[in-house]
Amino acid sequence: MVIDGGEEASGLALMFGTLLQLNVEQHPDKLADFLALNADVVIEATDLEQAITLSFRGNRCTVRDGIRGAPKVRLSADHMTLTSLSQLRIGPLGLPVYVDGAGREVLGALLHRRLRIGGMVHIGTLNRLTRLFSVM
Fold first, then answer.
1. Cα–Cα dist 5/25, whole Å
2. 62-108, pLDDT tens digit by residue?
3. Residue 2 Cα distances to 46, 58, 64, 65, angstroms
4. What are the structural domains, with CATH classification, of the chain?
5. Which residues lie across from 56 on neighbouring strands?
6. Are 132 and 75 in contact (CB under 8 A)?
């Protein structure tokens, strides 16, 4: 895990970079998803007017401030909604569970367009990303 800019990086970059690193270190079963990702992913916190790009390549992820490259997936929401994505439980077949409280909250954010997901055609990338960031 490399956070471009180190301690000078935005709070959003530090938060998501640290969450990702801790999840992979503390849950070795997430390593396969980490290694399988080969994509740029953008996360935008609309209320903070900040965006980061996570560039997954092999055994490395570089987190950069701003929108870089040609992202396959783009998540856009206020920072609290983005943070709530880490509360999604992962169920059978490695898919997110949407029938509990956290899942319904995410679905509600999607329905009311508080959460926007670009690149839904890259469902494999999106599912791996969801599993990586889930702390449940």
1. 22
2. 999 999 989 999 999 999 999 989 999 999 888 899 999 999 999 99
3. 24, 13, 9, 12
4. 2-133 (3.30.1050.10)
5. 39, 61
6. no
